[in-house]
Amino acid sequence: MIVNSPTRDGATPEPETIAKEKEFGFDIVKETKEFRNYENSSLQDTVSNSYKNSHTLQTYEYASKKMREYSKLNSGIKMGIWEAAELLNTIIDESDPDSDIPQINHLLQTAEAIRKVYPGPEYDWFHLTGFIHDLGKILLSDKFNEPQWSVVGDTFPLGCRFDESNIFFDFFKGNPDYSDSRYNTKNGVYQENCGLENVVMSWGHDEYFYQVCIGNNSTLPKQALYMIRFHSFYPWHRHDQYKNLTNQQDEEMLEWVRKFNKFDLYSKDPEPIDVEKIKPYYLSIIDKYFPKVLNW
Ligand SMILES: OC1[C@H](O)C(O)[C@H](O)[C@@H](O)[C@@H]1O
Ligand SMILES: [Fe+2]
Ligand SMILES: [Fe+2]
């Protein structure tokens, strides 16, 4: 699948970039056969259990409360980006049928895949986004001790009807919001096209790390912040649903979120990466877009 790849300012993609994406092997066959198998992968029981919990326990009220608490960034934990990435060394994401190796590998694999296709220094923010996009999973570490269902998995809007394009849709039937008349209409508590920034998404690593970026005054561009915040929102970026909630800015950013998704997904590889070798490069770009120490 060769998806159109606008450059940073939205101009037409360079033929060279398209060729590189091809060479890197993004293709639909691999996608349907090897990735995101939610039916009978070797990890099926663990994955399905993780979604059973998240789809029944994530409610509008729960996610709003988590958001209020965590966006204060007042856990008292202060650390740099690299230190946070190291916390992911031992963390496994139970919602993921494609990977059961420690998460730091996934971060570096994503980032390096982006760097292969977009090598230029003008894309250093994109490399960095690959490296940090799942950092919110430190909520699973013993510093925060959040359960898997409150951290990982595809995300979905709360406060309105659950769309059938969500994987494991049937599990939502056990969610109290499913039968709550305030929340089970098409628009629910929202105004038509209110914009995703006004929507309460299921609580997890995406929204949390977005809050960390904003609250610590990261200078990453808007595209990067969208990739971080909405990369798990598959019903939107893959299935074109929830258009009743998006506004013009969301639609403009959608291409970037999609572009990012290819790297997030197709770079997953059981072979771990040589961390020490590439560490200096990532330290330098972290320095450019983040303060040395962040509040978490
Ligand atoms: O963003 C993620 C993610 O980090 C997971 O590993 C996963 O299993 C998802 O479904 C997802 O959307
Ligand atoms: Fe993620
Ligand atoms: Fe990821």
From TrEMBL:
Pfam families given in the database record: MIOX
InterPro entries listed in its UniProt record: Inositol_oxygenase (IPR007828)
Chain positions recorded as substrate binding sites: R36, D93, E94, S95, K137, G153, D154, H231, S232
GO biological process, one term: inositol catabolic process
Entry keyword annotation includes Acetylation: no
Cofactor binding summary note: Binds 2 iron ions per subunit.
An annotated GO cellular component: cytoplasm
One GO MF term: inositol oxygenase activity
Keyword list, A-Z: Cytoplasm, Iron, Metal-binding, Oxidoreductase
EC number: 1.13.99.1
Location(s), subcellular: Cytoplasm
Pathway: Polyol metabolism; myo-inositol degradation into D-glucuronate; D-glucuronate from myo-inositol: step 1/1
Family named by the database record: Belongs to the myo-inositol oxygenase family.
Name of this chain's protein: Inositol oxygenase
Organism: Polysphondylium violaceum
Taxonomic classification: Eukaryota, Amoebozoa, Evosea, Eumycetozoa, Dictyostelia
